[in-house]
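1st attempt posting a full record on here, be nice pls
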Amino acid sequence: QVQLVESGGGLVQPGGSLRLSCAASGILFSIYDMGWYRQAPGKQRELVAVITSGGNTNYPDSVKGRFTISRDNAKNTVYLQMNTLKPEDTAVYYCNANWRLFTTQNDYWGQGTQVTVSS
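the predicted structure (as tokens):
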């Protein structure tokens, strides 16, 4: 079965850093676009970062310049380096794997990991 196992969340002070990891199994990792999403209490889930199978990255303005997504295909793992964290970054962060071909789409989600930015 497909599994996305996340780790690295926790409590950090404003201005601090965290590195999230997501280890995938059960998929041909190298052909999947990988993304990180987050959902804060009472808010909708939003895209944080995406890295395509070709290595292209995209970020929303809210995290651009602070967050960096990367992938290691040899380890079937995607990372999210989060720097200069702000209280508004507090959310559950989810790993996503997505593959599309014409009318077919495979979309998988991790269990989520809590990130809390607070003094």
